[in-house]
Design brief:
By secondary structure, this protein is α/β, with parallel strands linked by helices. The chain has helices at 2-20, 30-44, 76-87, 109-113, 145-148, 231-235, 237-248, and strands spanning 23-27, 48-51, 65-69, 91-95, 115-116, 128-139, 155-159, 168-182, 185-186, 191-199, 205-217, 220-225.
């Protein structure tokens, strides 16, 4: 009997350890996240579960990280669950259009992320998405684990940081035929990780230090990365590696 109890306890702890290593991906566009899940498994042996938001578990406690990749509306229940998860010590990873105009109606999402999408002309600092562009992504945090661990950048990109005049050659990578977001208004402190350079249809070159960032949130931590409009974005080994690094990063 004692041996049976001991075996049950052993199985419990082994199972608990396994669940704690699982990453939950909550999405409304599944194929792109299946590509990401495959890359996370290949790069770091990370186990994932991909679900729709209406299949959200009763509790997010125990997941190694929760990745949010929702293009359309984030329902109020999942919104609160994501925020509580981060608030209580979880690692919340927010990708691409999980910050977009559709989330303006969410009461707590943008305040938690410490940002806004201004409703004015893009030339005056208003938010805008720009599709069918080539995105050049540059490393703005050369000493940070997320942007450097197991990464060798293939490109050198001429880039001028916001608020500066001097152009520098920075390491980076290129994502063709994707989508960029302009003028995320970051209202609270955070660590800037990546910048974005792209040319719009009118020929204007945009360079913004807002392509990826991370920040503490109460007991937890939030990471955001802007690329990810297409499956091909996640097939890029550098970009997949950056997200894997965010999952395994120990702050």
């Amino acid at each position: 009997m004692k041996q049976l109890i001991a075996a049950i306890i052993c199985v419990f702890w082994l199972t608990a350890g396994t669940v704690a290593q699982e990453v939950l991906i909550v999405a409304d566009e599944i194929p792109a996240m299946q590509v990401l899940a495959k890359a996370l498994k290949a790069q770091e042996g990370i186990r994932t579960r991909v679900i729709f938001q209406n299949d959200l578990p009763a509790s997010l406690t125990g997941f190694r990280a929760v990745i949010v990749y929702i293009h359309k509306d984030i329902d109020s229940g999942p919104e609160k669950a994501f925020i509580e998860y981060a608030k209580n010590g979880g690692k919340l990873i927010v990708l691409h259009h999980s910050i977009s105009s559709a989330k303006r109606k969410n009461a707590e999402w943008f305040p938690m992320l410490g940002l806004d999408l201004p409703k004015k002309d893009v030339s005056e600092g208003g938010y805008k998405y720009v599709g069918d562009i080539t995105m050049e992504v540059v490393n703005l945090a050369p000493a940070h684990f997320i942007t450097t661990h197991k990464i060798t950048y293939p490109s050198s990109i001429a880039y001028t940081r916001e608020g500066q005049r001097e152009e520098k050659e920075l390491p980076g990578f290129v994502l063709p035929k994707t989508e960029a977001f302009l003028n995320h208004d970051l209202k609270s402190p955070r660590t800037i990780l990546l910048g974005c350079k792209m040319t719009d249809a009118a020929g204007k070159v945009w360079m913004q230090d807002r392509s990826a960032w991370c920040m503490p949130f109460e007991k937890g931590w939030v990471f955001y990365s802007q690329p990810g409009h297409t499956e091909a974005d996640f097939e890029n080994p550098i970009y997949a590696r950056i997200i894997a690094n965010a999952v395994i990063y120990k702050r």
